[in-house]
Amino acid sequence: MSIAGRNSILLRTLLVDFSNLRLSPATQQIREYYHRPKLRNPYWFVRKTRAANEDNLTAENQDFIKERVHDKFGPPAIIKGVSTYQNAVQSLVKAEEREKVEWSPKLRRTGVLARKIGNYPLWLKNGKKIHTTLLHVVDNHVVRYIPPEEYKPTQKPTVHDVSKYGCLLVGAESTDPSLLTKEYCGLFKDSGVMPKKHLARFLVSPEAALSPGTPLNVTHFRIGDFVDVRGKTIDRGFQGVMKRHGFKGMPASHGVTKTHRRGGNIGAGGEKGRVWPGTKMPGHMGNRYRILKGLRIWRINTKYNVMWVQGNCIAGDTNSMVYIYDTILPLRKPQISPPFPTYFEDESEEALPEEIWYETVHDFKDPSITFAPES
Amino acid sequence: MNISSKVFQSAIINKTNVRRIASTVPRCSAQSERKVPLSSQAQTQSNSPSSSEQRKPVVPSEYRFVYPEFLPDPKLEWRNPIREKLERMDMLNRRKHIDIPEFYVGSIMAVTYSEPYSAGKVSRFVGICIDRDRCGLRARFILRNVIDFQGIEVEYEMYDPAIQKIEVLRLEKRLDDKLYYLRDALPEYSTFDVNMEPELLPEGAPVPVNDIKVKLRPRPWLERWERQNLKGVENIEEHLKEKHILKAKARETPWEKYDLMKQYRKTIPEEEQKEIYAEVYSQLHQLELARKKMKRKRTFIKPTKLA
């Protein structure tokens, strides 16, 4: 018998042995305890940026890629103060195709993505100075709408009765797709929107749904309305109690040794002789999302898509991204209809003025303020 | 251009800045220098219109001292081109309604201001400018005067719409950048007549530097003036003890003037300054011309003395 023939017999016996060894379904172990649902991330949480290497691209290849991008999305252009591409959106819905929906106070509109670009003072007509933060709505477009039946997030948003709301994906700041991964670009494929640097989801009522490609501008909000602004606070790292919680610390002298910036006592003895949960102690500070609520919009610039919002303590550094929502504070919610589902520039009869000021704010184009005596 | 050459360039710019502030003559010479290329450019403009389209407006080099608040905060984390542009637009709009003249720390000014607490009236405060800082719409200055034997300081925001009028009564500079030491000086150094008449400088004259040296009161002081390297104080030595001198010497930082990076971080690069002033030049220049015209009109119409 040849070596090859002997080997084949060996292999056959081995296979038979393995088939005998196979576990029958009856002996399979069944775990009886509760299966925790796997907390899957939303489908748009994919790897965004490519590795930064050049892939040994020649100059001609790079030019070719640039040309392809320009062929598809048009040449680079600055629109409303943001560098984007001329045809960054291809699927604009015409005004006739849109259906009109009546606004009611219980409906939830979409929010927008903006960049915090700094703060400066404005003055009211009564001479009072107010601090304002400038928020630049950067090239926002709707990417996708997921109706309430299909939107089943595993991580529940902190909204009462999520099942009522659909999910609107909004992107901000068009960018060169060659800088992004294939999967990330794929998210934008059906929408006709150019891949965006930033993606966010907003929970909206089905009546406030928008079709992909709809631009969102600063005119989505009205002057004098109140907004909530969500941003990521500045990462300050591991901090002591004086910086993190504003403790007073201890004296610098008078016999104090080695406890100048320490927290002091953290608990009592006896029955409650332990550290109580929630005790303020040193730890990591910042780098978490915080919402500042009920901020009035004092001024709007429609040319640059900028709004001036009350206060200068909006979370995040200058040039960081923030989310702007309609306020949820019950007494500051709008009483009359805001632009619903959003403000369409093509529908309005006359264009809005470039600068819109709230009635009590002093316009810098006006003459100086003088106070007349009350008669 | 690599970073080191940029740094070096900015350092050179800074040095020239400092020299220009300290001396009085170069301003005049800079103007005369400016006039020559302007006229030559005008000639070339008439010859070739195509080249004139590319030509940018020639911004006077002293603009960075006359309008320092148009330069943004050099802190890189706080900068944003669109915010800065909007801020400059607001500043120009405000400047169309109020004449904010050229002034420096050490100039004597009068500010007319209306207050809600004295409605129907305006208050006028005369004093010496002891500090001028901040940028954009936040720009401010502090005036100091002694009124009824009481030192008074008022902080004004330059773009506050309640300000009715800003006059410069005496345009001059002092030896120091900040004059907070007047708080500890004898009161006569910060006493100015409330009814002072404005002193006019001839057209195109350099801004004079007042090299007056003030006398300080004896200790206690508000700040440790001996550590601040002041040029405008006369008698600082006579109030110091041995320990004060030693401590001041220990805290000296004579190497800081050679720290190029420090200077670079504190200033806006010259290329950017030019860009910013080129943007606002035409409007500022028009305002200047209008102001000049107004001034001339006023001198013709208003008689200086009656009877």
TrEMBL record, chain A:
What's one GO MF term for it? structural constituent of ribosome
Region: Disordered, residue numbers:
249-279
The record, for SUPFAM superfamilies, names: Translation proteins
Output the GO biological process annotations, alphabetical, semicolon-separated. translation
Q: Would the keyword Manganese turn up in this protein's UniProt record? A: no
Pfam families referenced in this protein's UniProt entry, alphabetically: Ribosomal_L3
May I have one GO cellular component term?
mitochondrial large ribosomal subunit
Q: Which UniProt keywords apply?
A: Ribonucleoprotein, Ribosomal protein
Name the protein family: Belongs to the universal ribosomal protein uL3 family.
The UniProt entry, under NCBIfam families, shows: L3_bact
Name used for this protein in its record? Large ribosomal subunit protein uL3m
From what organism does this protein derive?
Hermetia illucens (Black soldier fly)
According to the entry, what is the taxonomic lineage of the organism? Eukaryota, Metazoa, Ecdysozoa, Arthropoda, Hexapoda
UniProtKB/TrEMBL annotation, chain B:
Q: Where are the transmembrane segments?
A: none
Keywords, alphabetical: Mitochondrion, Ribonucleoprotein, Ribosomal protein, Transit peptide
Which GO molecular function annotations are given, in alphabetical order? structural constituent of ribosome
Q: What is its main location?
A: mitochondrion
Q: Cite a single Pfam family from the UniProt record.
A: Ribosomal_L19
Gene Ontology cellular-component terms for this entry are:
mitochondrial large ribosomal subunit
GO BP, sorted A to Z: translation
Keyword hit for Protease: no
Q: Where in the cell is it found?
A: Mitochondrion
Query: Biased-composition ranges for Polar residues?
Result: 38-52
User: What InterPro entries does the record tag this protein with?
Assistant: Ribosomal_bL19, Ribosomal_bL19_sf, Translation_prot_SH3-like_sf
Q: Which SUPFAM superfamilies match?
A: Translation proteins SH3-like domain
Superkingdom = Eukaryota
Write out the ranges of the annotated region (Disordered).
Answer: 25-57
So what family is this one in?
Answer: Belongs to the bacterial ribosomal protein bL19 family.
Q: What is this protein called?
A: Large ribosomal subunit protein bL19m
